[in-house]
Amino acid sequence: MTSLEKPNLGTSSVRWRWPSIHPEGYKFAIIAAVISLAFFIFVAEWLGWIGAAITVWILAFFRDPVRTTPKDGRMIVAPADGLVTMIATVAPPRELVGEGALAADPVTRVSIFMSVFDVHINRSPIAGTIARVVYISGKFLNADLDKASEENERQHILVEGQDGMRIGFTQIAGLVARRIVPFVKPGDIIAGGQRVGLIRFGSRVDVYLPAGTAPTVLLGQRTIAGETVLAVAGRDERIDGIAQ
Fold first, then answer.
1. Reported pTM
2. Which of 9, 15, 71, 95 sits CB 3.0–4.6 Å from 134 for a disulfide?
3. What is the recorded membrane topology of this protein (predicted)?
4. Which of 36, 111, 149, 203 is catalytic?
């Protein structure tokens, strides 16, 4: 077992720690800090404190915590932190359909909404090879709306596992989001739960499960990217739950 692998029994050196900040966030934090300092010196102290609070929020927005992903080729993990707001049976996007990609038949789509308070680093649902990355410009509607999957700025990613299982997922920009930042390109070999990109300032991720696979999450449930198991490939047993 390598130093990065974690057992599911016993004790280890696991300790809570402050999450690191993704480099993408530093430039925004520096700009906010400079403006805050200018407010303190030249304008009004209360504006400076507001700017300081915004600076701290920006650093929190771009936090990049370590995640522990189960190593099981059947498990499909959540690509995003957030709230499961939609589970529907739909046809996959045409950009993810075709030879060597997904079939056009309807499958289960799980939509995860990320608020401005969630971690916005997105991760791969499975290990495999990046088969497609398709960026589409579009609108910036509320990402919680169903039509956002077809009208908003978005980026489709297709991952093919070693066993041939293909998982498509879509990063969708939201009302506040203005840029999708990719970390991968076609041909890259990635691990399950590996970072694949981020969406700046509020957004959504849709995951298209394989045929004959039911989600193991529920509407209203919160997911943790790279850790929460969205589904187990080939398991078509629906589950119920309770909000409490």
1. 0.86
2. 95
3. Peripheral membrane protein
4. 203
